[in-house]
Amino acid sequence: MALIQVRNPKKKASTGAYSDGVIVDGWLYVSGQGPIDVATGKAVSGTIEEEVRLTLENMGDVLRAGGCAYEDVVRCTVHLTDIENFARFNEVYQEFFEGVLPTRTTVQSMLGLGIKVEIDAIARIPSAEGGDGR
To answer: What topology is assigned to 4-124 in CATH?
Structure first.
């Protein structure tokens, strides 16, 4: 079983000791993404809607780098610093996912860097027929 590291091609600054994504057996596992400016590695503070949008855009960059799109996502885990923001979060989230929506768990969490949201994902690589999906 070979592991293939996936990097956000737009990411210029290191944001930690982890892979943006890892491909294994036709699946892409995307690390928790947040509202991070990929050029500077710094958190971008804004409204919950702004932070969710940037978080999902960052996720999209990793998905595309791994050969996937939003419609290939089968599972998301969402961390919100304030669960009272759920409805506002969900409005933006639905702009990115259509058709069969991914399964999802949403929890209230303490997040670093002053961010309001973090989302990780698992996606099936469309061209996967076993192996590494490429």
So the answer is: 60s Ribosomal Protein L30; Chain: A; (3.30.1330)
Helix (H) or strand (E) holding 50: helix 48-65
Q: What's the angle, vertex CA 109, arms to CA 104 and CA 112, rounded to 5?
A: 120
Cβ-contact 52, 81 below 8 angstroms:
no
pLDDT tens-digit map of 73-88: 999 999 999 999 999 9
Selection from 75, 70, 78 nearest residue 95 by Cα:
70
Phi, then psi, of 124 in degrees rounded to 5: -90, 125
**Global confidence as pTM:** 0.93
